[in-house]
Amino acid sequence: MVVTKFNEVLPKATAKRLPQYYRIFKQFVADKVDRTNSQAIAAKLGVDSATVRRDFSLFGELGRRGYGYDTTALRDFFGNLLGDSAETNIALVGVGNLGRALINYRFHDRNKMRITQAYDVAGNPLVGTKTDDGIPIYNISDIQKNLQDSNIETAIISVQSDRAQEVADTLIASGIKGILNFTPRRLQVPENITVQSIDLTSELQTLLFFMQDKKETEQK
């Protein structure tokens, strides 16, 4: 658990911005920008500069008055905070349309994360094959046997909602500690298990709400 310099739990809103900060500083370094300020960071992030300064203040002195922020130092800081110095192998359960898209997403090109195993039911013709990148697609019945003999602690669920809890229970019993859940089902897990849920329908509905709200505001 990440805590602030005040020995408090890091706010969820700040935690969700950490990967964005990391990506921004990696881009600064790639562009050979040696230092920057909260205004430039905020512009890239789409928030106000006060939010950036407030987030950074939770970790202590990340910058210097009159100088700003050293981009290489902050890239390394957020990389270490996110554990990007080590390889993270991921298991994917559900190789339907979304699952195939996730397999083909180049996590490894951006970070040290990669899907190394995939699973689906025997009826899926992809079971027993490998992707073009060499990722094996196993029968879902092999999850416990395979995961217990691996170093994988992270999994993605992209199955039908009515099977999500059953899959989560199997993953947890196999040693998985973190789950990225792409179903609208709210998973019931022990306290020591971390779940991050992404409901694409809800996200799209939220987008449409803000679009409509902005349109009505402009018409007034």
From TrEMBL:
Localisation: Cytoplasm
Chief localization: cytoplasm
Family annotation (Pfam families): CoA_binding (PF02629), Put_DNA-bind_N (PF06971)
DNA-binding region residue numbers: 20-59
A single GO BP: response to redox state
Domain called CoA-binding: residue spans: 83-186
GO CC terms: cytoplasm
InterPro entries on file: CoA-bd (IPR003781), NAD(P)-bd_dom_sf (IPR036291), Rex_bacilli-type (IPR058203), Rex_DNA-bd_C_dom (IPR009718), Tscrpt_rep_Rex (IPR022876), WH-like_DNA-bd_sf (IPR036388), WH_DNA-bd_sf (IPR036390)
The organism's place on the tree of life at top rank: Bacteria
Keyword Thylakoid: no
Keyword terms: Cytoplasm, DNA-binding, NAD, Repressor, Transcription, Transcription regulation
Function recorded in the entry: Modulates transcription in response to changes in cellular NADH/NAD(+) redox state.
Family per record: Belongs to the transcriptional regulatory Rex family.
Listed name of the protein: Redox-sensing transcriptional repressor Rex
Native species: Pseudolactococcus reticulitermitis
Gene giving rise to this polypeptide: rex
